[in-house]
Design brief:
By secondary structure, the protein is an alpha/beta fold. About 50% of the residues lie in helices and about 15% in strands. It has a five-stranded mixed beta sheet. Helix 1 runs parallel beside helix 2 and helix 3 crosses helix 5.
């Protein structure tokens, strides 16, 4: 029996981790991905570091409870272009996101920024405006998704759905 990967496409929460601004986007899979919701979580920069991580974790847990995604996809930071302190902060924000998903029993897939950009624009080195424009087109949105952190998270969810579909087709072809 061949399973149609479109018919089994899940609701996906995409996350672009960050401690100043953590983008999130929910996309329903299918023949054409469908926008559900998106936004940005912004911990108070004056709060202690641990409180900001806790805030981020709690906000993501509430999103998971609200939207009930079946799968979570998180963008891996490209640390080569970041200062060590920034890379560490993003890694810790990423860990808060992973813990929120794991606490809800969800598996997490990780995607490199170049893979996300290639999935939505066909080019792994596109800029933020290009990603926003392609996400708008792929999700048939009336306007560019704002802010760019939310657009990046939607792109992560779209990337995951595309990769999921390819894997399902490969399994069906075996």
């Amino acid at each position: 029996m061949v399973v149609d990967p479109v018919a089994t496409a899940p609701l996906v929460l995409g996350i672009d981790p960050g401690l100043r601004a953590c983008g999130w986007g929910v996309v329903q899979g299918g023949a054409t991905p469908c926008f559900v919701a998106a936004g940005v979580i912004k911990p108070n920069p004056r709060d202690a570091f641990a409180r900001r991580l806790l805030f981020l974790h709690a906000a993501l847990a509430r999103l998971i409870e609200t939207y009930r995604p079946q799968e979570v996809a998180i963008e891996d930071p490209f640390v080569g272009s970041l200062a060590p302190a920034s890379a560490l902060a993003i890694g810790q924000a990423r860990a808060a996101a992973v813990l929120a998903a794991a606490a809800s029993g969800l598996e997490v897939e990780f995607y490199a920024p170049a893979a996300v950009k290639a999935a939505v624009s066909g080019y792994g080195a596109g800029d933020k405006r290009q990603v926003q424009a392609m996400v708008r087109l792929l999700l048939a949105l009336e306007a560019l998704p704002e802010p760019s952190d939310a657009a990046d998270a939607l792109a992560v969810a779209i990337c995951h759905l595309q990769n999921r579909r390819v894997r399902a087709l490969e399994r069906a072809g075996r």
